[in-house]
Amino acid sequence: MTRHSHKQRNAQRTIILMFVLALLPILLALLFYCNPQWIGRYKNYGTLIVPPVQLADGELTPLGAFSKQHFSELDGRWLFIHVVPRLSSTCDEACLKSVYNSHQLWLMLNQNLMRIRRLVVFADAETSGKVMSAINDPYLLYAVAGKTLFQALSESIPAPLISGTVVLRDPLGNVMLWYNRDFDSYKVKKDLSRLFRTSRVG
Residue 13 and residue 59: Cα distance in Å, rounded? Predict the structure, then answer.
């Protein structure tokens, strides 16, 4: 084998190697696209709201002395919101369990506990009294939101908006994820832990 042919073979190998390396990401992407279960552990447990619904702190009106006292704590924090649609007469058993599970979730966040606040947001103030009296949670905040929020959520969430349904608002005011009221606290904790790791705000 001549020196020239040896160099030629090395050049060919280099070209083939570069070609394979260029194709590898495309092949991997196709494999994961055809087999989404391989990356299921990295998916959000909650469902993304696309596009996100805007909810600024100024759109919420606090209800009750405790909420008014601590309402400034919502600024720049993540909000775990239990929604109560218009004319809901009470917080039923599933709704109460949703509130209880969110309290357990909050306790599980450990060092991230202060990065998030939990609250119940009503579509109207008329029925809030009955619902608030049914919930026994001293750390929960209560508020009323305008019609715009509930209308936007009804249009964005592909499920009936019932008492106890949960939405997650980021510190920038984007309602970005929603959960059924029978959510698993441990799975939601994984969602929040990933968000807290990647977020520099809140």
Answer: 64
Burial degree of 195 (CB within 10 A; 0-12, 13-18, 19+): buried
Task: Tell me which long-range contacts 151-157 makes (C-beta under 8 A, separation of at least 24).
Answer: 152/53, 153/49, 153/53, 153/83, 153/178, 156/49, 156/50, 156/51, 156/53, 157/47, 157/49
- Classify 105 as helix, strand or coil: helix
Other residues' Cβ atoms within 10 Å of the Cβ of residue 170:
18
- pLDDT-derived band at 41 (thresholds 50, 70, 90) equals low
- Residue 120 in this model has a pLDDT that exceeds 90: yes
* Spatial separation of the C-alpha atoms in residues 119 and 117, rounded to whole Å: 7
d(CA 75, CA 117): 10
- Is the sign of the CA dihedral 156, 166, 65, 115 positive or negative? negative
Distance of CA 63 to the CA centre of its chain: 24
Give the model confidence (pLDDT) of 138-176 as tens digits. 889 999 998 888 889 989 998 888 888 999 999 999 999
Q: List all residues 6 or more positions away from 150 whose beta carbon is below 8 Å from its beta carbon.
A: 83, 85, 86, 123, 161
The 10 Å Cβ neighbour count of residue 126 is: 11
